[in-house]
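Q: Sequence in, structure out?
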Amino acid sequence: MTTERIVRIVAGTFILLSLSLGVEGSPLFHNSNWLWFTAFVGANLLQSGFTQFCPLEIILKKLGVKETCH
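A: Exactly. Output:
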């Protein structure tokens, strides 16, 4: 599995989890402040699309995860 794929999986998981914890209609609702975490993940995805700077990708590269499928 590549770093790009792992970043997408982790970001999607964090967004879905924070939405389920932050939306009042959810059976897992805890507190609406979890929606700030959703906004943070979305903002990080947006800025990484423009700047190509992603902290998780840097960590994964240091852990030895391959960058591409080749």
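The chain has a mean pLDDT of 94.
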